[in-house]
């Protein structure tokens, strides 16, 4: 308590609540904390990021689940392990077949695998949607007749061969004429649509009745109430429209992208109020969690910056840091 007071901290600032051992990212802290035989204060622990003291106020004994409780999870885990092993075995079989001179077409027929022939693709891969990540760049790093290592993708592998290379050239007008015309038409429609939506917004901002303004354009007026910042997009109420609702006070008019392609939503805020604060509301739990994550990231970033300034010439291994703190990327 004296340490908290000295640092201007409240108990809630350092309270982790009920937590399991695997949730403590620092092994030294985890071992010392769960090594306490009874509630109390631990000795000073040499943690990864500095000295740590832990106060345990309650110990809840571990619970062993019955077989029926974990049966479904076990089945799923076993099935996943078997599938992974089968994929690994099949990988070796296919690699052996390739080493023996069999083509991908022959291997696909022999083992009932899907063979996809791509007529042509540019380096951006734009003309062939749905290709595995890294396939196009890998194909452009090899050449005709070379045997390529398979690409690891989610749940399996992809084998590929380059059968022909067409030298880069500027396309002739006849090849791109239709695409150019379509792009020009879309651009013209978008410009006119945006101008009309902005004009309607300006009229509404000046106080014109929305029903009259919409009637002039043959547009439909819809009313939506009880919108919060966490409201989910639905139908004509797009995420952009929700954000536009909070762009100003009562009377604010805004333009947002519509749900359908090349459509706009023009909205007017007719009422606005600050909701009462309830600390135990479901929305607040999510907000608290997000705020806690942000504060944790800020503290860690500040700590690393200070260390680098004190030690001088020190760089941070971001991958190792992410692994140490259990993050998928630095600061997350």
Number of β-strand runs: 8
| Helix content bin | 40-55%
Helix/sheet category = mainly alpha
Q: Characterize the biggest β-sheet.
A: 2 strands, antiparallel
Beta-strand percentage range: 5-15%
Gyration radius from CA atoms, angstroms: 30 Å
First CA to last CA: what distance?
30 Å
Oligomer status: single chain
Strand order within the widest sheet? 1-4
Question: What number is the mean pLDDT?
Answer: 85
Low-confidence stretches: 328-332
The helix-strand sequence is HHHEEEEHHHEEHHHEEHH
Number of helices: 11
The number of distinct structural domains comes to: 4
Note the overall shape.
flat
Task: Break the fold down into its secondary structure elements and pairings.
Layout: H1 2-6, H2 11-14, H3 27-34, E1 40-41, E2 45-47, E3 50-52, E4 55-56, H4 67-99, H5 104-110, H6 135-139, E5 151-153, E6 156-158, H7 173-205, H8 210-217, H9 239-245, E7 253-257, E8 264-268, H10 282-311, H11 318-324
Antiparallel strand pairs: 1-4, 2-3, 5-6, 7-8
């Amino acid at each position: 308590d004296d340490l908290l007071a000295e640092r201007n901290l409240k108990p809630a600032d350092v309270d982790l609540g009920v937590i399991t051992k695997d949730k403590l990212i620092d092994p030294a802290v985890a071992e010392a904390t769960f090594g306490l035989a009874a509630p109390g204060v631990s000795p000073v622990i040499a943690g990864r990021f500095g000295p740590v003291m832990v106060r345990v106020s309650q110990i809840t004994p571990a619970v062993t689940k019955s077989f029926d409780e974990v049966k479904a999870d076990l089945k799923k885990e076993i099935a996943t392990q078997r599938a992974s092993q089968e994929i690994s075995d099949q990988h070796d079989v296919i690699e052996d077949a390739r080493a023996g001179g069999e083509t991908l077409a022959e291997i696909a027929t022999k083992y009932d695998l899907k063979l996809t022939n791509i007529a042509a693709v540019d380096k951006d891969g734009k003309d062939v949607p749905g290709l595995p990540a890294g396939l196009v760049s890998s194909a452009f790093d090899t050449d005709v007749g070379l045997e390529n290592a398979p690409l690891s993708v989610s749940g399996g592998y992809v084998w590929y061969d380059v059968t022909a290379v067409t030298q880069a050239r500027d396309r002739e007008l006849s090849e791109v004429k239709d695409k150019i015309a379509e792009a020009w038409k879309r651009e013209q429609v978008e410009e006119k649509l945006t101008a009309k939506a902005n004009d309607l917004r300006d009229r509404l901002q000046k106080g014109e009745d929305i029903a009259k303004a919409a009637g002039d354009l043959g547009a439909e007026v819809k009313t939506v109430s009880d919108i919060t910042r966490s409201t989910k997009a639905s139908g004509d109420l797009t995420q952009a429209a929700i954000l536009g609702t909070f762009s100003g006070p009562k009377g604010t008019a805004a333009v947002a992208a519509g749900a359908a392609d090349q459509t706009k939503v023009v909205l007017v805020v007719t009422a606005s109020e600050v909701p009462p604060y309830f600390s135990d509301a479901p929305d607040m739990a999510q907000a608290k969690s997000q705020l806690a994550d942000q504060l944790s990231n800020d503290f860690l970033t500040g700590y690393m910056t200070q260390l680098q300034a004190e030690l001088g010439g020190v760089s941070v291994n971001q991958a190792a840091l992410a692994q140490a703190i259990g993050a998928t990327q630095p600061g997350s």
